[in-house]
């Protein structure tokens, strides 16, 4: 497994107590002008819970400050807040292959994560929220090292060579804080990505937000020199340059309850059936079945039976 300790300048908090580490980290997040945080967790629930904890607990209103959270996970399918998991992915394939299915707190479409996919969360005050600017920053971070043709589309995706998507994007905006998170496909397992995101039930009628399908490509397919850690290095170096991040504000940490009080309850909610499946907007599943005639002499065609299952957050009905 890759290590995210990419530079000796990053503070890893080894050799001190958890209480000392917690005090130092909280002080940095609340008082530093600009910071970079690299999560040492590779668990999708831990990382999404940490991101949500930062959103709820870091007040950036009226501050000229921002911070960047960088994280990656084992194989996972992450659906948007208002999506239907049975439409967005193959639940059976994911369960059979150890791929976690998770509902995040932000809107937007479904993305596939694994160790070849990087995630970047930009935290900024509401008056400085700008998704395109963040995406242009990522494009330039990569272009200045590898000279790859990247641009931000009208849908706020990052496109490679004008046709292949390498990044999906979503955001959450609050009164005192905002985050915009996006992915970068570096060397993801494209076969598992396609199978995991296969639409399983085409007969669903749903009020849920539906993802827009697109052709994707890994950056490593464009340049064999690119790997995950090199992209992290390119992004952190450029962020440090343009945001004047001091070394003391470069943090490597694994989130836990001591550092982030209330973090465990956020994680437990993300792991719950009620949040993942129970939070699905109302939908209908329609199935038709051919039935054999009791008396073949009465009709030359077999009748059919249609069953409609309507599901919402409170109950379900069958017609």
Automatic annotation (TrEMBL):
Pathway: Protein modification; protein lipoylation via exogenous pathway; protein N(6)-(lipoyl)lysine from lipoate: step 2/2. GO terms for cellular component: mitochondrion. SUPFAM superfamilies: Class II aaRS and biotin synthetases. Gene3D superfamilies: Bira Bifunctional Protein, Domain 2 (3.30.930.10). InterPro entries: aa-tRNA-synth_II/BPL/LPL, BPL_LPL_catalytic, LipoylTrfase_LipoateP_Ligase. GO terms for molecular function: lipoyltransferase activity. Pfam families: LplA-B_cat. One of its GO terms (biological process) is protein lipoylation. Residues 62-247 form the BPL/LPL catalytic domain. Belongs to the LplA family. This is BPL/LPL catalytic domain-containing protein. It comes from Oedothorax gibbosus.
């Amino acid at each position: 497994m890759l290590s995210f300790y990419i530079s000796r300048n990053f503070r890893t908090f080894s050799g001190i107590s958890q209480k000392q580490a917690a005090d130092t980290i909280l002080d940095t997040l609340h008082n530093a002008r600009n910071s970079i945080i690299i999560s040492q967790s590779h668990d999708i629930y831990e990382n999404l819970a940490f991101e949500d904890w930062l959103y709820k607990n870091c007040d950036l209103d009226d501050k000229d400050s921002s911070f960047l959270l960088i994280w990656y996970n084992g194989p996972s399918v992450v659906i948007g807040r208002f999506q239907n998991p049975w439409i967005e992915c193959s639940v059976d394939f994911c369960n059979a292959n150890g791929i976690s299915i998770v509902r995040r707190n932000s809107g937007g479409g479904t993305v596939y994560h694994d160790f070849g996919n990087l995630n970047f969360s930009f935290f900024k005050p509401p008056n400085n929220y700008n998704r395109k600017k963040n995406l242009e920053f990522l494009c330039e971070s990569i272009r200045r090292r590898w000279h790859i043709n990247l641009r931000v589309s009208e849908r706020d995706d990052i496109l490679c060579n004008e046709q292949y998507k390498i990044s999906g994007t979503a955001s959450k905006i609050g009164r005192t804080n905002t985050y915009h998170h996006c992915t970068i496909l570096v060397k993801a397992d494209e076969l598992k990505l396609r199978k995991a995101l296969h639409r399983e039930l085409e007969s669903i009628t749903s009020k849920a937000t539906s993802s827009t399908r697109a052709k994707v490509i890994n950056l490593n397919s464009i340049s064999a020199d690119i790997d995950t850690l090199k992209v992290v290095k390119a992004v952190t170096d450029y962020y440090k340059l343009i945001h004047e991040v001091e070394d003391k504000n470069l943090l490597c940490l694994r989130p836990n309850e001591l550092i982030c009080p209330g973090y465990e309850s956020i994680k437990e909610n993300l792991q719950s059936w009620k949040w993942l499946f129970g939070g699905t907007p109302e939908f209908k599943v329609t199935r038709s079945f051919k039935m054999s005639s009791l008396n073949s002499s009465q009709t030359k065609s077999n009748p059919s039976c249609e069953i409609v299952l309507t599901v919402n957050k409170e109950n379900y009905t069958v017609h």
